[in-house]
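ok trying this again, last paste got cut off
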Amino acid sequence: MPYSTAFGDHFYCQTDGRLECGHVFLAGNGLPARWQKQQNLLIGELGFGTGLNFCETWRQWRQQATPGSELHFMSFELYPMRADEIDRALSHWPEIDIERQALVAVWPDDPQGSVSLRLDAHTRLTIVCGQALEGVSDAQPGFDAWYLDGFAPSRNADMWSLELMQALYDKTVPNGTFATYAAAGFVRRNLQAAGFVVERRQGFAGKREMLCGIKPD
């Protein structure tokens, strides 16, 4: 179970992080149903961590997206892990062995700046290394969906600030969405203040709530 000493928190839930990804981030953003209708999808993520969310998303994308579709997954990460750390963490899930091996094979020795990785002919991964607010503010608009997966708001408040939520909103297409495991009151209020319509849903593995929402058209 990977643990961040910088933030004093685990990288994902201790029940099953891969299933949590499906419940919170994929289902919370209406995926994979949306990519069966949409040819090109840009997913943004706050906190790449071990790459688990990317690998599980890519796995489902490969299985269910329409032929010729393009997936661009852009993640903002302050402390990129090493390839061997990613490999060890993701080896827990044999379901994503193909994706894990492909990711580790192209992962740079020292990720810095904006790292663009081509995983296959239709899948691109971009890791923007550094502070999330700066990275999101500098990104081009056009995000269709967001995975808000920073460490717990109580341990990493900057990742859930109003300024960052506003930057996310500004870079999101009309009818674009977000999903997050977090349900703290100030997170919900910041998302609403930024302009998102926010909905509470049942959380994963007994957690009472999660949040998801949409940018109005």
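PB: full thing came through this time. The chain has one domain: 3-62+69-214.
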